């Protein structure tokens, strides 16, 4: 493990206890304590489980290829960045750029599932290319920015600017959305939307865009929580 620019022995920093697992695929690592300064937990993991009793730093599950990571506390930014498969569950809040690409890259999350029980910051799923992100709380601005494919489900409110410059994929918001970007077109009212294996009940206003990018992305915005969007109904073909 690295501490700053120095390589350290893990046992010098942590108290370690171990027992033999029946197979490597069933191996479980349990980490306890305040890990807010520890980065890249589960980076490139492909099997097994990591259980964290506490909060962790940036880049949780970076480039993850399989397995399961569960965090009981909060997680800093870039959780699940460049993730390809597997599952991340955070029972607290997360920072910015969940499932997103790094700055300067266009390679966001390509597969797997990220579920957050709390709130998430800005640019959730930026440059996302596949997979499912489920946020049970609220999200910051620009969720789904530059999105190419995949699904983002937000059960709480959005700060706004959903799907800016998205070309594909699906964003579902069950809570309040302050406004819709002018480069999205309302197309219909839908009774439900699909988020992975789950059917989410509406009704929803469905918008497509971002037309500035010739995009075919879809926004599903809950009708009940957004009465101010009623004005869009005049543009629907009956």
What do these coordinates show?
This protein is 2% helix and 28% strand. It is elongated, with a radius of gyration of 19 Å. It has 238 residues and is mainly beta. The strands form 2 sheets. The chain has an 11-stranded mixed sheet, with no helix packed on it. A two-stranded antiparallel sheet has the order 1-2. The chain has one helix at residues 10-13, and strands spanning 2-3, 6-7, 28-32, 49-53, 68-71, 87-90, 113-116, 132-135, 151-154, 170-173, 185-195, 198-209, 217-222. The mean pLDDT is 94. A hairpin with a 7-residue loop joins strand 12 (198-209) and strand 13 (217-222). It contains 1 helix and 13 strands; from the N terminus they run E-E-H-E-E-E-E-E-E-E-E-E-E-E. The protein has a single domain, classed as 3 Solenoid (Pectate Lyase C-like), CATH 2.160.20.60.
Which bin fits the share of residues in helices?
Answer: under 10%
Task: Domain count, please report it.
Answer: 1
Nearest-integer average pLDDT: 94
CATH architecture classification: 3 Solenoid
Order of strands across the widest beta sheet?
Answer: 3-4-5-6-7-8-9-10-13-12-11
The end-to-end span amounts to: 62 Å
The rough form would be described as elongated
CATH topology: Pectate Lyase C-like
Counting copies of identical and different chains, the oligomeric state is: single chain
Radius of gyration: 19 Å
Topology order in helix (H) and strand (E) letters: EEHEEEEEEEEEEE
- What is the total tally of β strands? 13
Classified in CATH, the superfamily is Glutamate synthase, alpha subunit, C-terminal domain
CATH class: Mainly Beta
Query: Biggest β-sheet: count, sense, barrel?
Result: 11 strands, mixed
Give the DSSP E fraction (strand runs of 2 or more residues): 25-35%
Low-confidence stretches: none
| Count of alpha and pi helical runs | 1
């Amino acid at each position: 493990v690295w501490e700053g620019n120095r390589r350290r022995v893990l046992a010098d920093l942590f108290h370690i206890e171990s027992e033999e697992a029946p197979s490597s695929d069933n191996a479980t690592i349990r980490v306890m304590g305040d890990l807010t300064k520890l980065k890249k937990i589960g980076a490139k993991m492909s099997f097994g489980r990591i259980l964290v009793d506490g909060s962790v730093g940036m880049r949780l599950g970076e480039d993850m290829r399989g397995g399961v990571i569960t965090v009981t506390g909060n997680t800093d930014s870039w959780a699940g960045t460049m993730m390809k498969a597997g599952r991340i569950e955070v029972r607290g809040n997360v920072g910015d750029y969940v499932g997103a690409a790094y700055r300067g890259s266009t390679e966001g999350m390509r597969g797997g599932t990220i579920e957050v029980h709390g709130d998430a910051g800005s640019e959730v799923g930026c440059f996302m290319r596949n997979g499912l992100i489920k946020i049970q709380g609220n999200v910051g601005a620009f969720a789904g920015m530059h999105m190419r494919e995949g699904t983002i489900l937000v059960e709480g409110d959005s700060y706004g600017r959903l799907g800016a410059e998205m070309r594909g994929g699906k964003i579902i918001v069950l809570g309040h959305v302050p406004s819709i970007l002018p480069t999205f077109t309302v197309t219909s009212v839908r009774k439900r939307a699909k988020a992975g294996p789950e059917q989410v009940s509406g009704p929803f206003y469905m918008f497509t865009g971002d037309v500035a990018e010739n995009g075919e992305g879809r926004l599903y915005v809950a009708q009940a929580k957004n009465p101010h969007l009623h004005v869009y109904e005049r543009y629907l073909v009956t």
